[in-house]
Each structure stands twice: as structure tokens, then as C-alpha cells.
């Protein structure tokens, strides 16, 4: 099968190469999926799991990519809940990766059924941003109706999902980002927008929840705009910033079939829109991940026409 592999930690996305690799086999509780569309987060190339296995042994050349949508072609021993020929979407294990390829073996529990009226590109684009937003808002942030949410990077793949889900939950949403992203952030559900390059973040006043995707100084400043008892949720790594009388939580998403089902249902009924910035083929994926212009939104690789 055709697949993208990485071998050099220092090369970044420029070090990706299209090669032929053996098709994966289904282990216990696995399914093999013929991939129709996949996604990739450039941060994967900084994760230890891309380069080593759980025993810290080198596993290169490895196939990156965790996000996928496709069709089940084989079941491993003991696999339940899915069937051959079923359309699915979800995430692979970061230590196995492998979705920038024509086939991948995935634990069945990490996948959910993809309804026939949802395109594969949509399924691949919603899995990671959708789960990140859902878990940050509802599992870790415990968002309630009537609260206010400050969403950093509100025009991006994750931020736009956060803004929409927060609005659906009855929250008041304030988005942040670059000046050029203002309209896109508003289109995806933000009711106010703060230009982080020209506006003063602290002028926002007090909010109940901050969802941070940026890190660094923005995280530290964000802690100061949270009301007593509020929560700072971040996916940018551990932070020493703490809101007064509140919580600071950094988290890594986990795959969850029930949550994927909730998310895709909202996509089906039009309440939730995915944020796809570019679609490329597997053969063109290296160029797609090294764009000459800034792309806002998710880059999706269409593996099969």
C-alpha cells in the first residue's frame, strides 16, 4: 500500500516521504480500515509516540496521522461492535498512528460508525477537533448554560469547534485570534472577537471558562481574566498559570465512541460545521503540509477518490 513515512525528527513535515509499505494486519480487538480520508496534526512530529514505542524503542520509519474515515475491511479476533463493510471514523493510537496511508489497523473501540450521508472528508476532519472541544468544554471545563467562554484560536480547526459547541450549550462565546480571522471566528459562533495583536486581552473582563490552544504568555494572561471559581482548560501542555480560586487543567484527548456519535449527529443535523482549510491527495500531502501561504482550518488528505 502507499503511505507517508517519517524517519528524521529534525526534518519536520519536510521529511515526509511517500513509499510502499505492507498492508497492516488486524490484532486482537482490531479492525483494518481502508482509509478514504485522513487528517494530520503537525504537532505529532514532536510527540515521543511518533518515534518510539511504549518501551522507548525506535519504531521508524513510522506512518504519522491519527484521524481517519473509511470502511472496515477486516476484523481481528474478538472484535465486536463493528462489521466488515461498515463506514467508520475516529482516531488511531498515537503509538501506532498510520492514517496517512491506504489502510490502517485500529482498535475498534477508537472508532464510531459514520452515517452514510456524512462525507468521508467531514468524518476525518471532525474526529480530533470535535473530541478535543467536547472533552475540554464538558468533561474538564464542566460548561453550563449561561456561562461565558473565551476561546483562543477561534477560527482554527479546534477553536471553531469549541465556539460552536459552546454556543449550542447556551454559553456566551468570545473568540480570539489574528485580525484577519475575525469574520471567520464570528461565522463559527463567536459573539465577540479579540484581536490578540492589537486589542487588550484583559479588557474582556471576567469569564467563566478559557479554552486555550496557544500556550505561553497567552495562557498566563488568560488566567487573570477568569472569574473566581472558573476554569482554564488548555491543550498546550502543563501550565503554572492558575486562575484565582479556580482550576487549571491541561489534558490530552482520549477516543470515545459515544462522544464521536454525539458530535457526528450534530454535523448531520446542521448544528455543527467542520472547518476544512484544504483538501489534498496522498501524493500531494507533503506539499500540503508545507504550504506557501497560511491556511486556517484543517488540512484533510483524500486517500481514495
From TrEMBL:
Pfam families: ADH_N, ADH_zinc_N. SUPFAM superfamilies: GroES-like (SSF50129), NAD(P)-binding Rossmann-fold domains (SSF51735). CDD domains: MDR_like_2. One of its GO terms (molecular function) is oxidoreductase activity. It comes from the Bacteria. Residues 12-301 form the Enoyl reductase (ER) domain. InterPro entries: ADH-like_C (IPR013149), ADH-like_N (IPR013154), ER (IPR020843), GroES-like_sf (IPR011032), Lipid_raft_assoc_Zn_ADH (IPR052585), NAD(P)-bd_dom_sf (IPR036291). This is Zinc-binding dehydrogenase.
Amino acid at each position: 500500500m502507499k503511505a507517508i513515512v517519517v524517519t528524521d525528527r529534525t526534518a519536520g513535515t519536510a521529511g515526509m516521504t511517500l513509499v510502499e509499505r505492507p498492508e497492516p494486519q488486524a490484532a486482537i480487538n482490531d479492525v483494518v480500515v481502508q482509509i478514504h480520508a485522513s487528517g494530520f496534526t503537525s504537532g505529532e512530529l514532536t510527540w515521543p509516540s511518533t518515534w518510539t514505542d511504549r518501551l522507548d524503542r525506535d519504531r521508524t520509519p513510522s506512518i504519522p496521522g491519527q484521524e481517519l474515515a473509511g470502511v472496515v475491511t477486516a476484523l481481528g479476533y474478538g472484535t465486536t461492535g463493528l462489521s466488515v463493510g461498515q463506514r467508520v471514523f475516529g482516531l488511531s493510537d498515537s503509538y501506532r498512528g498510520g492514517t496517512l496511508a491506504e489502510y490502517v489497523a485500529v482498535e475498534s473501540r477508537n472508532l464510531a460508525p459514520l452515517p452514510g450521508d456524512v462525507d468521508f472528508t467531514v468524518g476525518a476532519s471532525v474526529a480530533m477537533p470535535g473530541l478535543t472541544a467536547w472533552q475540554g468544554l464538558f468533561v474538564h471545563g464542566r460548561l453550563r448554560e449561561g456561562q461565558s467562554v473565551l476561546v483562543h484560536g477561534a477560527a482554527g480547526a479546534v477553536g471553531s469547534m469549541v465556539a460552536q459547541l459552546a454556543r449550542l450549550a447556551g454559553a456566551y462565546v468570545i473568540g480570539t485570534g489574528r485580525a484577519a480571522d475575525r469574520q471567520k471566528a464570528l461565522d463559527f459562533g463567536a459573539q465577540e472577537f479579540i484581536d490578540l495583536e492589537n486589542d487588550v486581552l484583559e479588557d474582556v473582563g471576567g469569564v467563566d471558562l478559557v479554552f486555550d490552544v496557544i500556550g505561553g504568555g497567552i495562557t498566563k494572561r488568560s488566567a487573570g481574566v477568569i472569574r473566581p471559581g472558573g476554569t482554564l482548560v488548555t491543550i498546550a501542555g502543563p501550565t503554572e498559570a492558575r486562575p484565582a480560586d479556580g482550576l487549571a487543567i491541561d489534558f490530552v484527548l482520549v477516543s470515545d465512541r459515544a462522544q464521536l456519535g454525539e458530535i457526528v449527529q450534530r454535523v448531520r443535523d446542521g448544528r455543527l460545521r467542520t472547518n476544512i482549510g484544504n483538501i489534498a491527495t496522498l501524493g500531494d500531502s507533503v506539499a500540503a503540509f508545507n504550504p506557501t501561504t497560511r491556511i486556517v482550518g484543517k488540512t484533510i488528505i483524500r486517500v481514495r477518490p
